[in-house]
Fold these 2 entries.
Entry 1:
Amino acid sequence: VQLQASGGGLVQPGDSLRLSCTATGRIFSEYTGGWFRQAPGKEREFVAAIRPSGSNTYYADSVKGRFAVSRDRAKNTIYLQMDSLKPEDTAIYYCATGRAIVSTLTSVRAYTYWGQGTLVTVSS
């Protein structure tokens, strides 16, 4: 399984970005899809996740109401729509997938496959 993340860039505070993560094969139809981020000098942290059904989504408190995770089954792709971006959202964003269940989906260890990361910089 390979995951390819894209969509990062340099934006100003308040702007929006949409990240994409495309998988080889229909992995997101069977496994949980997750987004994590890692800022310089910090540990990788959970951002959002979507269950295989596509109807259940989960968010870190820091992004709730601003970010939205979704999935396109036909394209084997998950998305992270990021609105009202803040400087503290600056990080490398990683997509991941694995047999994470509801009680574990915020944990890095619950995901088996990882994308290469895409850099998001929010700065004026």
Entry 2:
Amino acid sequence: VHLVESGGGSVQPGGSLVLSCEYSGFLPSDYYMGWFRQYVGQEREDEAVAAMRNTGDPVYADSIGSRFTISRSEADNTLYLQMVKLKPEDTAMYYCAIGYGWVRHTLLSSNYKYWGQGTQVTVSS
């Protein structure tokens, strides 16, 4: 499974971005996808900002509130993360990931098996 993120960039506080993650390769029917972030100088966060199963059921980290929306285009094999009202503390490298098999919590990074290379998001005035 191969994942390639895009869509990162620099925006001002309050701005918006849409991240994309094109995925390819064989996926079992019980897969799930998520977006994680890593702050400069720190390890990648253990909890995703957003995740969803292949059947839907999006979930979000409590800290995100309603600012982010995860979605997917099956036709294009692309996972999206729409981000609005961005804050400086959202500045990070964002990674998409895929896992499979039954798990209780799709937000946990330890459940994921395939990772992209990341795309940088910078929120600054």
